[in-house]
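Troubleshooting log. The previous structure file for this entry was overwritten by mistake, so regenerating from the original sequence record. Sequence copied from the archived sheet and checked twice against the printout by T.R.
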Amino acid sequence: RPLKIEELWLVEGATDVMALHEIGKTAFGIFGSKLKKAQVDLIIKCDPKKIVLAFDMDLAGRQAVNEALGMLSGRGINLSVASWDRDLGKDPGELSEVDRCKILVKDILR
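Regenerated output below.
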């Protein structure tokens, strides 16, 4: 039975998941920078209305965003990309709790 998650944040690692959980976000760690088909299948079972991609702010993270968009688009889920000032940290786990609350989310697909 689907979990019916309203908004699901996709991140690279466990510390990112914990950091977002601390500010009330539901997050799923892909444990790397490459989203796999089996992970997409699990994500779809959660029946999210919106997915926010919050991968690391480095080259691998930017590539992961593009690949994830390709794998997740066309499924009737709103897709967004999170961004923040790279000087604050390369991933959500490195951001302070205050800065995590200021992450910008840009809707890109509906």
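The chain has four helices and five strands. Archived copy saved in two places this time.
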